[in-house]
Amino acid sequence: MELEEVIAQRRSIREFETKPVEKVKLEKLIEAARLCQSAKNRQPWQFMILEDGRKDQVAEIMLQLFESHDEELPGFVNSSRHTAQIMKNAPVLMLVFREPDELWTPGDLLSIGAAIEHVCLEAVNLGLGALWIRDTEYTEKQICAYAGYPQLQLVSAIALGYPAEHPAPRPRKAPEALLLPFQGR
């Protein structure tokens, strides 16, 4: 598939088929991330691929947020409930970690974002769907402990599998709305 077509077809997939993802495709996703550019070539990312009960346990950790709260939690925290269900229904959950380093936080996070986008685009290229997940933020420490890496920072997660939906493109800003005119001297 041509790159422009891959970019145009990329969608956030929230419904997946039950079909497992082949190991060779998971290896290609990691290779796409590995080849990503990074600030000062730090390559700050580390990935973990979870399937079956292990990914479901991560979703359960996220759902524990709601066990002691009858009312809605503040802000976007409530989206974690829906995201956890998506994670349970996806065949694969990829966790994305980094070693904490305050001096490198902005550069590392930008680099990891680029690596995640490589994974999401390669997923489309391989006929897979992906959902880039931020909701792990609210239970990061518990998920890191469960995974056996309490010293790492969980930056994000990606739900992966064969798409069971084909959503229409979401509205995008016009190109002219993205470009700022120079107003300096």
Automatic annotation (TrEMBL):
Q: Which domain of life is it from?
A: Bacteria
What GO molecular function annotations does the UniProt record carry, in alphabetical order? oxidoreductase activity
Q: Can the keyword Oxidoreductase be found in this entry's annotation?
A: yes
Q: Does the keyword Oxidoreductase apply?
A: yes
Q: Where is the Nitroreductase domain?
A: 7-162
> What keywords were assigned to this record?
Oxidoreductase
Gene3D superfamilies attached to this UniProt entry:
NADH Oxidase (3.40.109.10)
Identify the PANTHER family for this entry. Answer: NAD(P)H NITROREDUCTASE YDGI-RELATED, NADH DEHYDROGENASE_NAD(P)H NITROREDUCTASE XCC3605-RELATED
Which family does the entry's similarity section mention?
A: Belongs to the nitroreductase family.
Task: Tell me the protein's name.
Answer: Nitroreductase
Organism listed in the record: Holdemania filiformis
Q: What is the lineage of its organism?
A: Bacteria, Bacillati, Bacillota, Erysipelotrichia, Erysipelotrichales
